[in-house]
Amino acid sequence: FKLGVKSSFLPLGLIFGLIFGFVISRGQVCFTSCFRDLFLFGRDNAAKGAFYGMLIATFIVFVLMLNGYSAFVRSFSVAVALGAFLFGFGIVFAGGCECGWAYRAAEGQTHFMIVGVANFAGTAILAIIYDQIPDWIKSGPKIQFLNEFGSLPGLTLNVGLLLLCVALIFAYKKRFFAKGGY
Prior knowledge:
There is one protein chain. The chain is mainly alpha-helical. The protein has one domain (about 30-175). Helix content is about 70%, strand content about 0%. Helix 2 (about 30-40) runs antiparallel to helix 3 and helix 5 (about 100-105) crosses helix 6. The longest helix is centred in the last third of the chain and has 26 residues, at about 155-180. The protein is globular, with a radius of gyration of 19 Å.
């Protein structure tokens, strides 16, 4: 096992995937349910946990980039905004996000087996038509953790937005209980 050799990361990835899959299945973790629980029941633990996890992941990626690892940076564009909206609409309509449908399908829930097939079909259709999408839709500014001058615009922006989301969760929960729930 040599660190830095891509093929040596496969066993590590498999072990991580097994542990991660077990945790999300046992904990019934789903990003859709994070927001459902927050807005319908006033339970904010899962939503805060999701954002804290993204904060930790942000710093881990940043440290890796400082140590020479490269990261794939997607441009923020009309396509990203449209894709995020469609993805969000789809997971709410389907009743679960990527994690949610996968473990529910593995539990034998047929609705989520159909959701999984539709997810793969949608991804395949996008892959087939991607080259026909006009460049003005796909292009946009790249927001990176580090730029050529060594400053941290992307890290600051990302951490700031994640902390804003956590603050909004706290504010919503406070308002939720001030109203006495639903």
